[in-house]
Amino acid sequence: MTTPPIASELDLCLCHSCGLACDITHDPHECERCGAPLHRRKTDSLTRTWAFLLASLIFYVPANLLPVMNTTMLGSGSESTIMGGVLEFWQHGAWDIALIIFIASIAVPGIKFVALTMLLVTVQRGSSWALKERSKLYRFVELIGYWSMLDVIVVALVAALVKFQALGDIEPRQGILFFGLVVVFTMLSAMSFDPRLIWDKQDKARNNPPNEEVMDEVASH
User: Fold this and answer.
1) CA 75, CA 169: separation in Å to the nearest integer?
2) What is one term from the GO cellular component aspect held by the record (predicted)?
3) Which of 37, 47, 59, 85 sits CB 3.0–4.6 Å from 80 for a disulfide?
4) What pLDDT was estimated at residue 183?
């Protein structure tokens, strides 16, 4: 059975800006529609992905240990970390806000750390395990990355509501800055990863099929 040609065999390259399939042999190597530079692969994909991921892990520690906001209600003030804020909102009956902060600040970064680490390790080991599922996992990581700033938005909205009611005051603390850096670096890490690396081993096997002598020897055994 003949297999259809792949994009590299047809000298086609997908523009990373607008998604147009372009001829990579044209000079200059720019997208015909949007003018963005074209390249077959993301440069130093694994190195940059690891660097951004490790940076985000480093910033994730102070983001959870340092307070993210200072709440002053009726003259008494207290500082809260991310988990402290989740528990505080939950105890005051705002379970919806607590759930949003927990998902955006604890669950989403944890999922991205685990998923990106697994993708990097399996690619570096040349694994052919669950190729389609790993590709879908990468697209899922890209999707949830856009919702990672919900925690920062919630803190800003709560601060505005408290100030509007004139019952107290909420001020952001340094922890929110570190969490913002975590979000930025995890998004950069996901953007730096080249999902085509997942399929490299299969493409090599396709381009270098075993010769007839090897097949006959295998069949004889």
Assistant:
1) 9
2) plasma membrane
3) 85
4) 86
In the chain, domain spans: 1-40, 44-209
Average predicted confidence (pLDDT) for the chain: 80
Asked if 116 contacts 49 with a C-beta cutoff of 8 angstroms, the reply is: yes
Q: Three-state DSSP class for 76?
A: strand
DSSP strands (E only) in 33-190: 69-73, 76-80, 168-172
For residue range 1-17, list pLDDT tens digits in order: 567 777 777 888 888 78
Give the span between the Cα atoms of 128 and 114, in whole angstroms. 19
**Per-residue pLDDT reduced to its tens digit, 73-123:** 666 667 888 888 788 778 878 788 788 778 888 888 899 999 999 999 999
> What angle separates helix 108-124 from helix 174-192, to the nearest 10 degrees?
30
pLDDT tens, position by position, 143-170: 887 676 666 676 666 666 655 555 566 6
Give 142: exposed, middle or buried? Use CB within 10 Å, 0-12, 13-18, 19+. middle
Cα separations in angstroms, 117 against 51, 95, 97, 111 = 12, 31, 29, 10
Helix, strand, coil share of the chain (percent; to 5)? 60, 10, 30
| Alpha carbon 5 to its chain's center | 30
| Cα–Cα distance, 219 to 200 (Å, whole number) | 27
Three-class HEC string of 20-42: CEEECCCCCCECCCCCCECCCCC
